Amino acid sequence: EDDGGDPRTAALAAQRLATQDIVGVIGTYGSSITEAAQNIYDEAKIIQVANGSTAIRLSEKGMKYFFRTCPRDDEQARVAAQTIENMGFKQVAIVHDNTTYAKGLADEARSLLNANKDIEIVYFEAIVPGERDYTAILTKMKGFNPDVVFFTGYYPEAGLLLRQKQEMNWNVPFIGGDATNNPDLVKIAGKEAAAGFYFLSAPLPKDLPSAEAKKFLDAFSEKYGNPPSSIYAVLAGDGFRVLVHAIAETKSTDPDKVADYLHNDIKDFPGLTGNISFDDKGDRVGEVYRV
């Protein structure tokens, strides 16, 4: 099924899948899209392994069958706050787009940065995703004179913000969340405007450390002519691999047995994106993010 990156389509897709006697669903990427389908899978006792949905609240609902191979936004926010502190920025602007993911990451980063008395958040606002011109909001933000802008939304808007701030001759550095990790950001912004842009991410496919990952990337490149363009596809693949492993180890497709195994018994499974274990909420254990 294709959820189309749309909450309503995701709910309809989940309802269709729930009637098909399946054991597990791998996906999806956007947190608000996952949220629209979560309850349907949970009630149907279908294991869901999300690959890019990082919003904290997804795993705070006590859903036994929900897991994710990506880390949570509080981990991402911790790395963001650390980065801003280490780079010596004092006046910070935070911009989100009101989606589940972006607002959650922005709120979490704000609360961590507020704990540092040397840092002041001078601007905290939302943009409307999908618009073509953000000059007005950039002009308003520039008036607050931030040293850095932390943008927690997605890459199409990030690319436009970078391009339009360059057109205004405003040289403030931008840091993006992991949803800005996409090669198309450079196409949208232009190479010059994208230069110097920092973003947080799980490692890029080419930076994956293990021999198994390198073997996979070589095989993928041979078949498709290039490596995977994003880490989220590889995180989805790891979701598939842990689910298959749990079924093989339990010799069962009973959702309770498989979920119990994933919660309690899988330890440091050698994923392509690093070792994988889950906690009692279904969250991935261990540090994944880098700058």
Give the distance, in angstroms, between the N- and C-terminal Cα atoms: 33 Å
Which percent bin holds the helix content?
40-55%
- Low-pLDDT segments, ≥5 res: none
Rounded mean pLDDT is 94
**What's the Cα radius of gyration?**
20 Å
Number of helices: 11
| Class by alpha and beta content | alpha/beta
Question: What percent strand?
Answer: 5-15%
- Following the backbone from N to C, one meets helices and strands in this order, namely HEHEEHEHEHEHEHHEHHHEE
What is the strand arrangement across the widest sheet?
5-4-6-7-8
Number of separate strands: 10
Shape: globular
Largest sheet: 5 strands, parallel
What does the model show?
With 291 residues, this protein is α/β, with parallel strands linked by helices. The chain contains eleven helices and ten strands. The strands form three sheets. It has a five-stranded parallel β-sheet, with helices on one face. Strands 1-2-3 form a three-stranded parallel β-sheet, with helices on both faces. Helix 4 links the parallel strand 4 and strand 5. Helix 3 packs across helix 4. It is globular. The mean pLDDT is 94.
